[in-house]
# Entry
Amino acid sequence: MTKRWICAAAAALLVSPAAAEEEYPFAPERLAQVYDNETARLDMGSVRDRAGMRTFDVLISANNPAALPSGAAAVRTVRYFARCATNEMAIGGVALLDSGGSVLKSVIVPPGTWEYFKPGRGTREAEWLGNVC
# Structure
């Protein structure tokens, strides 16, 4: 019985979202995080109404781009989908750009799999949503 429980627990850990995120560094949720050494800026020029929702981009860049390793992404552009009526937003994709603006990698969340969330009060995400809605 104990051996079966240990095997089941190990299998659960192997397929857990946290373990999957650690294994896959290009998870959109991970790429959309803004870290202490970075700055995020809402691109108001990117705001569009599409198919009953509003889309907008947020640019995330390093505070000290000179300290980035060679070939590293200098900017991440995160595309968000907003449901203004319900105050919800979802990550639609992330583009990793080099210092010249060329795309290094694009990570797209397939339509229909977007996970909408309500940003917490006082967060930068709530401010972005308030500005675009």
About this structure: The first strand starts at residue 38 and ends at 50.
